[in-house]
TrEMBL record:
Sorted UniProt keywords: Transferase
GO BP annotation list: tRNA threonylcarbamoyladenosine modification
Single GO molecular function: transferase activity
SUPFAM superfamilies attached to this UniProt entry: Actin-like ATPase domain (SSF53067)
Keyword hit for Transferase: yes
Region span, Disordered: 161-188
Gene this protein is translated from: tsaB
Protein name (record): tRNA (Adenosine(37)-N6)-threonylcarbamoyltransferase complex dimerization subunit type 1 TsaB
Amino acid sequence: MLAFDTSGPWLSGAVLQGGQVRAQAEQPLPKGQGEALVGFLEELLAEAGLGWEDLDALGAGTGPGNFTGIRITTSTARGLALGLGIPAIGVDRFSALALDGPDLPVVLPAMRGAVWIRETPAATPVQSDSPPAFHIGEGGTPPAHPLAVAIARIAAMRMDTPQPRPAPAYLRAPDAAPPSERPPALLD
């Protein structure tokens, strides 16, 4: 199992074989995840002594997170799965951070200084201006596993059941607006 996530300013990846972590890395990367991801994954596979042909499945982080990062992970996972003829299994970041942790709400940063809070694995996340006093995530209890390791473990648990293709987990409706200025006139 090769799992990865680019839902924030990072590359996160892990190789899991027989339930054991064979390779794992986290690399801060505010920009350029799309260009760097495949090389990063190839380095992880090499560190584990494996190649693309050795994989049985992929685990892909589906967010929430930044729009472009989530799209990079899900599209890369879907393309690799198609090319390799293996399943790609999406895992949301709330579930990954909660894996094997204490029974606390999971908190993720949201735009404009707010946070997303998910109280239980099945609850719908809500946006708030402040996190609860005790939580898993930024400023709280650290998760039990690095992000990609948790994604790999959850994806491995789901491998034997049919899974939809990884799709972005967006929590907020788009708020982009078309430009208010008129475009320049085209010359003939």
